[in-house]
Amino acid sequence: MTNVLIYADSIRSPELRHEVPLAIGDPFLYAERNGERHVLTNVLEVAKFRELGGLEAHLPEEYGWDELVAKGGSPRTMRNELLLRMCRGLGIEEAVVPFWFPLTLADYLRENGVELRADEDFFDERRRVKNEAELAGIRRAQKAAEAGMAAGCDMLRRARANGTAVTLDGEPLTVERIKAVLEGVFSEHDCAADEFIVAPGPQGASGHDMGSGPIVPDVPIVFDLWPRDRATGCYADMTRTFVVGTPSDEVVEWQRLCQDALERAISDIRPGVPGRSVFDGTCEIFEEAGYPTQRTKRPGESLHEGFFHGLGHGVGLEVHEQPGLGFISDKELVAGDVVTVEPGLYRQGYGGCRLEDLVLVTEDGAENLTSFPYDLQPDA
């Protein structure tokens, strides 16, 4: 059985949060040996770990902390020696660690006989199948995303086009006004989002441009929302595209093709299917309609129009994680994966259209976790 070491805080480390479902802001050592789970923590946090159950919580004094303090030295040097002593106390002579494991700590452990191996895939695979708590957090975050989308849609529905401007309650409607409302909605659902996309016009064709400035009539506005559930640290992710006023024939076609691609992809998702094959299905739809994809671009060319990105990605303790649904995705889907499906079409200098649903891979197919209409016009 593989030994595991992780040294981090559980707020910023998804690898650690998956093993220890608590939000702990200070770094601590997590260790597995022969299936037994241990943490080295402090008196401020030890009660939380012991209430959690399923692991053994140790305090620094167990490994000679007072002796180290008496000898003196830098805090980092004492920390490294303390963690080495815990490894020795648990009988850990070799372990797998995340790729970002602190280098100074790794050097110290290796110099003192603990063999470490960084393995990104090992930790990615451990987190793919969502546990019950994570899946509940994803569902809550998805409800928050849909509530935010509904609030944004309502603002667009009540807005009025005045020539080249859009107003709401007599004031210019801007991305910043919309985002302020959505942030409040997320918070009401015990979720938060440091960033999300409300991108009108050309901004919507610029990848991850978060959007800014006034809403303009008759052009597509891409809403891409990924709130995070506070209780579990798990994300959701969804996208819709709206137009205040009259959408162009081009955008209407984009929306139709994106919805066709979305529906086909979800019908193709099931355990054992490679992510690349789901992506290929979307490319076939877009290519038949005359749009470029990553499959049709020339070698060395950077694609900026048509369907220029992957079809989707895993979602959980990170908003982008394994598995992928893209041109180089080589992993087969497994029951318990949660993935996005987000086909899009774009023209630089004008805008784009993207639709995105969140999907749970089940034992015999897929469950769409998203329940929100695809209409381009918010008053439809």
Number of domains: 2
On the 0 to 100 scale, the average pLDDT is 96
Distance between the termini: 57 Å
Taking all Cα atoms into account, the compactness measure Rg is 24 Å
Structural class of the secondary structure composition? alpha+beta
Amount of helix? 25-40%
The CATH architecture of the largest domain would be Alpha-Beta Complex
**CATH topology (fold) name of the largest domain:** Creatine Amidinohydrolase
Runs in which pLDDT lies below 50 for 5 or more consecutive residues are: none
Which CATH class of the largest domain?
Alpha Beta
- How can the largest sheet be summarized? 4 strands, mixed
**Order of strands across the main sheet:** 1-2-3-4
Counting DSSP E segments of at least 2 residues, the number of strands comes to: 21
Helix count?
10
Could you name the CATH homologous superfamily of the largest domain?
Creatinase/methionine aminopeptidase superfamily
Strand content: 15-25%
The shape is elongated
